[in-house]
TrEMBL record:
Family of this protein: Belongs to the short-chain dehydrogenases/reductases (SDR) family.
GO MF term list: oxidoreductase activity, acting on CH-OH group of donors
Species, as recorded: Protea cynaroides
Protein name as annotated: Uncharacterized protein
Record's keyword terms, sorted: Oxidoreductase
InterPro entries in the cross-refs: NAD(P)-bd_dom_sf (IPR036291), Sc_DH/Rdtase_CS (IPR020904), SDR_fam (IPR002347)
Length: 305
């Protein structure tokens, strides 16, 4: 069984005042267990309160980064958790996340499942939803979180094939998984979509990625209005710079070493600092009157949109 000892954060005071210097590193694709340091999915300070007892959750891209931290917190809160990952590239990360969920889950939650899937195509999205429903009977919480990004110095580097691939993963998957999951969701259910600070600030080096994240914000707002009277809420989370496998997969060694230093807090966030936003939005007791909104865990950047 995997050991997660390296993921525990330092004491709160130290973590707020100090920033660990990340060694230069580069990966393609990004693999969590090869990162140095490993992103922190666990926080000793998190106190579960049975907020998601009896709920069934599907988290796309749940094998690592923010997705892993969300799966972990959902399990602590009593949910039965399923997640998707990319077969071949993310097998070990998916196994590690399964073990993490199994250790965290409550007694009455059912065993978690990890589903290999390329979510860029509707048929695969339908198959994933069907597998979750066939296993657990329904979906109460859907977290659309799968993503990929690549840097580009010029627009000429973003050819048609790459543009389509990024939109398929980052936006088409959200649309198609949501469309099929809605058939199995009921009043009180929650849909949460991961967007990004780049949707609001833009990014000269991540034009196609930022465009998908802007589309996700519009999707959240549109679906929230459409579903408001059904009792299904739709919200988003727009993280700032978070230490996840997307970073060494996208940026140069020097950029990784300096990642997040330009935030007001002077450091990047860790996945465990983002995951509670998803718990809040998933829990009707906490957020029953919130829909069409986006939370901004971003280290202090002011977002006016």
């Amino acid at each position: 069984m995997a050991s997660f000892g390296r993921q525990f954060p330092p004491q709160k005071e130290e973590f707020l005042l100090q920033r660990e210097d990340f060694p230069p590193q580069r990966q393609q694709p990004g693999i969590e267990h090869l990162m140095n340091p490993i992103p922190q999915a666990i926080s000793h300070e998190y106190r579960p309160a049975n907020k998601l007892h009896g709920k069934v959750a599907l988290v796309t891209g749940g094998d690592s980064g923010i997705g892993r931290a969300v799966c972990y917190c959902f399990a602590l809160e009593g949910a039965t958790v399923s997640f998707t990952y990319v077969k071949g590239q993310e097998d070990k990360d998916a196994i590690d996340t399964l073990h993490l969920i199994e250790q965290a889950k409550t007694v009455d939650a059912r065993a978690p499942i990890a589903i290999p899937a390329d979510l860029g195509y509707e048929e695969t999205c339908r198959r994933v939803v069907d597998e979750v429903v066939n296993t657990y009977g329904r979906i109460d919480i859907l977290v659309n979180n799968a993503a990929q990004q690549y840097k580009a110095r010029t627009m000429e580097e973003i050819d048609e094939e790459r543009l389509e691939r990024v939109f398929r993963t980052n936006f088409f998957s959200y649309f198609f998984v949501t469309r099929h999951a809605l058939k199995h969701m009921r009043q009180g259910s929650s849909i949460i979509c991961t967007t990004s600070i780049t949707a609001y600030k833009g990014s000269p080096k991540l034009i196609d990625y930022a465009a998908t994240k802007g589309a996700i914000v519009a999707f959240v707002r549109s679906m929230a209005v459409r579903l408001a009277r059904t009792g299904i809420r739709v919200n988003g989370v727009a993280p700032g710079p978070i230490w996840t496998p997307l970073i060494p997969a996208s940026f140069s060694e020097e950029e990784c070493a300096n990642f997040g230093k330009d935030t007001p807090m002077g450091r990047p966030g860790q996945p465990h600092e983002v995951a509670p936003a998803y718990v809040f939005l998933a829990c009707p007791a906490d957020s029953s009157y919130i829909t069409g909104q986006v939370l901004h865990p971003n280290g202090g950047e002011i977002v006016n949109a």
